[in-house]
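Posted in: Structural Biology > Protein-Ligand Complexes

Title: Requesting predicted complex, manganese (II) ion in pocket

I'd be grateful if someone could produce the 3D structure tokens for the following input. Sequence and ligand are given below.
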Amino acid sequence: KKSQLSGVFKFMKKNYAKPNKQFYGKAKGKNVIVIHLESFQQFLIDKKVNGKEVTPFLNKLYHSQSTYAFDNFFNEVGQGKTSDAENMLETSTYGLPQGSLFSQLGSDNTFQAAPAILNQRAGYTSAVFHGNVASFWNRNNTYKNMGYQYFFDASYYDTSGDKSLGFGLKDKLLFNDSVKYLERLQQPFYVKYLTVTNHFPFSLDKEDMDPNFKAPDTGNKTVDNYFVTAHYLDQSLKEFYSYLYKTGLAKNTLVMLYGDHYGISNSENKYLAKELGKDPDDWTDFDNTQLQRVPLMFNMPGTKGGRISHEYGGEIDVLPTLLHLLGISTKQYIQFGTDLFSREHQPVVAFRNQDWITKKYTCLSGTLYDNHTGQEIQPDKKLKAKMDKIQDRVSEELHLSDSLNQKNLLRFYTPKGFKSVDARKYNYADGLL
Ligand code: GP9
Ligand code: MN
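-- Reply #1 --
Done. Output follows.
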């Protein structure tokens, strides 16, 4: 049984990246607020439409001295979309080749996930705030197996009438109406806010629109509206931050923000081209891939020295990065990502379909592109050998992650000092307090 893990252990040994002293423990003991920016792509950052910034608040955070941000950070989700992003961030293992890991395996698998690790290693209380019903993506069951102590889903808020839209409670209300629960959590806490308003089809009620912000005219309504709901999400964050500052929570909190996956699909990207200063007729698969960048920011209000890193990485890398920032070692865990701040960080980004991207190259179904020119290249023998090596590593990594999850192998390995999660300990009460 445990021998099935030998390939995984071998990979972990060569994959492990030791923490960078400069960053290790920088956020030790702080509360952690994870903000999941639904469908939010990196190109929105610093973007102006009709002379106005789409996300002025996030832009300020992005450039702030108190933020470590990344501009070559990619989403790596598959068909499980939001749930794949969540799985990667909580466990540093990949989603499945087909479907959603949360839906397929979340009820029964053994996890060694962030909420349990943080609780056992550093006494963190954990909770998720989300304006949709708990059963969506099988979150209610998966979260219990991950060790989430509380899940404040739609049933905890008034979602009647125009308070909710599309996938649930509007973001401004989610932040506002969850505060009464947040305030009762024992500190330090590890909490996650899953926003929903910036989700396809990007509709918004008139009353929630900023009269000073005008959508672009791209020739595609979905694309136009994407900017409007992204602007609304930005405003909701500004309001939440003003709460964090007013209450003093800000100064002992690390806020981690990330985008889960694209909002604009490949087939709609050509409508974006002009907004991005490109010719829609020259749009290629290479360009689609470049748009898979999403934000990743670590904001510690009141601190200095932050900067924008150009390191290449993806969602798989977040957990070791976060744990090291909190001063929690990761060597004993099975994690496929590596700390983005580590000098040994692995800068190959693996997509779920085996495509990959590095600082220099993008490889899509075996076709190689030069990141600098965006042009296809015919590799010579030497480059071809290098490429094959990267491809082998990507395939091996995805394969090992899949076998780990599909065979539920973590049940055969309990890291030193880790106590298996007992899902029966948690009862989310479904709002019936
Ligand atoms: C729903 C939300 C959306 O609860 O998280 O999920 P997605 O469609 O983006 O996967
Ligand atoms: Mn999503």
